[in-house]
Amino acid sequence: MGNEERSGYIERLEAFVEEYRDRMAELLRAYGPGSRPASHGQYALVGQPETLVILERMEAVPFLRRGRWKEELETVFLDLEFAWGPRIRLSR
Fold this sequence. Notes:
globular; mainly alpha
């Protein structure tokens, strides 16, 4: 996140939580700890605190965040992207 985006980010993150609360709860139920997919070692980020910021970035700037992923983390992020179902899907 650039410095220009940091100003007011807490408020934008709070607004994101309010708007997507139900969707995040469903994501946690379907893919979080204790779920069938999680029992197979997938969706490792679901249920982690940093997921909130990652989800917000997926919605706010989907192309930018994909460009910054490191190759070794790509599978983990793609799992989260699939589970969240962002408005813009990007192919490999």
